[in-house]
Amino acid sequence: MRSRRERSVPAPLLVPAVLAVAFLVLPLVGLLVRTPWSELWPQLTSPGVGEALRLSLVSATLATAVSLVLGVPLAWVLARSRIRGRGVLRALVTVPLVLPPVVGGVALFLVLGRQGIVGRWLDEAFDITIPFTTTAVVIAETFVAMPFLVISVEGALRAADARYEEAAATLGADRWTTFRRVTLPLVAPGIAAGAVLCWARALGEFGATITFAGNFPGTTQTMPLAVYLALQQDPESAIVLSLVLLAVSLATLLLLRGRWLGRAGAAP
Amino acid sequence: MSLVAEVRVQRGVLHVELDVRVADGEVLAVLGPNGAGKSTLLRVLAGLLPPDGGRVTVDGEPWDDVDAGVHLPAHRRRLGMVFQDHLLFPHLSITDNVAFGLRTRGAGRREARAAAAHWLERVELADLGARRPGQLSGGQAQRVALARALAGEPPVLLLDEPLSALDARTRLTVRAELRRHLGEFGGSTVLVTHDPVDAMALADRVVVVEEGRVVQAGPPGEVARRPRTDYVARLVGLALLPGTGEGATVRLDGGGRVAVAEETAGTVFVAVRPESVALWPQRPEGSPRNVWPVRLASATPHGATVRCELAGEVPLLADVTAAAFAEMGLAPGAQLWATVKASEVAVYER
To answer: Does residue A2 fall inside a structural domain?
Structure first.
């Protein structure tokens, strides 16, 4: 009897909780209900959709790769080095997490645009223009998504026992060797989880992309942009595109829960 | 040749000032309570902590010299270190763990693996090479850690509480094996421990460290027989009584007198072993020269005997058999008489 009472949820908590679940789940159910299942295949195979999907996957993957190459070392610096102003550095790095992506897009445009500080120099010296290209899509997505990876990997590094690195040092390993052969394998689950989060965020990126890269089918129109555009002209295809993104998101979540978050959570 | 170190480190309120010297083939035990600065000393020797002052020299080569601005980083010091909780790399096989130091110091993969297999054979774990550290028992893991530390054949071996994470029975067998390997090891060994049994069983020489200073140094037997501080006395289970020698008796600083077998003068320590103290419910007949009224403060079973802590003018420890303890109906608070033969009392200069 007693255990049953302890397990029951008080009404003031239960009712809002149920409402919250309904609020989060109902829109997704609505999406499924309104899906024109018979037209699913023709819609999916129409040239515009395939192009947007391919562009989205490629740019999100490239953004994740760039984030890994730059973000893992940054996370190491934040977690392990003793440089001054680390707190400020961490705050700066996490700004894109809370910044409205549109603002990020504007900022990127001001720096890398043709009249921008770096953009003008690139244009004059190398004849390179970044805005409104696929490169711009990758840059915008990296800007928004990399902090997710950095924060996740930094957390994994802090949780990892730094004494393994001391043990490696007593075995003659310098810091770079230690990083490659000890630290990296130890935090691999954290890096993988961070990379998936980063990839999912890059895949859904809208604001910074449309501001900095524009909305050109084939070069910069990713899935979220295509969904937004389709909703105004052809709602049914917007539903189909949304369904694809939902499926990709759910797959990501399953991957995270089953493979990496579970293992990372179980590690001491 | 040897390890010579003068280490000065300020860690919060603790000022560590330790000078140690270890010859080739010698095992030095650094014995002391937690927070005495033992591990700090070891971290400095390993290069993991730069000292605030002093120098560390190995075979004439300076590893640390604060005045000259010399600090060799940890990975360039030729040493092996064994940690309390083994710290085997969980993502590498046992063989690769043992081969790790050889690889970082430039050996080829096959050569390092072969050497690792040889070392695993020496710690009698040859058939576990393919396993991961998580699949080993605590004792096995610590033996692998020892093999990993020794595989580079370093001139210096540092052992940081190598046995204290093991259960009592495993500790016994690993200690015996460690003793064998230390006997074969040609370099200088520094063993940090808070367990006097480890120090007695493994070391050629013991330094006792309290609050960052050496309070006693000597061969293990000497330290055990003639402790100079309460900490060491408690560790080795002796009652330590400071006093002043007056011929064949010692006037204790805490009050009371003790008859001793040899004549002494000046400030001395009196050490009484618990097994030489006899307890009586009444004042014993005859005229034993050392007889004191005591109160039983506490009693803890110790195998077949009971270790009794006795309060009174002369505080003592006494071991009585469990049978005698029960027969006398002893309980904390009991008023008793304690006797000790003068010939059983050790007395030495302070």
So the answer is: no
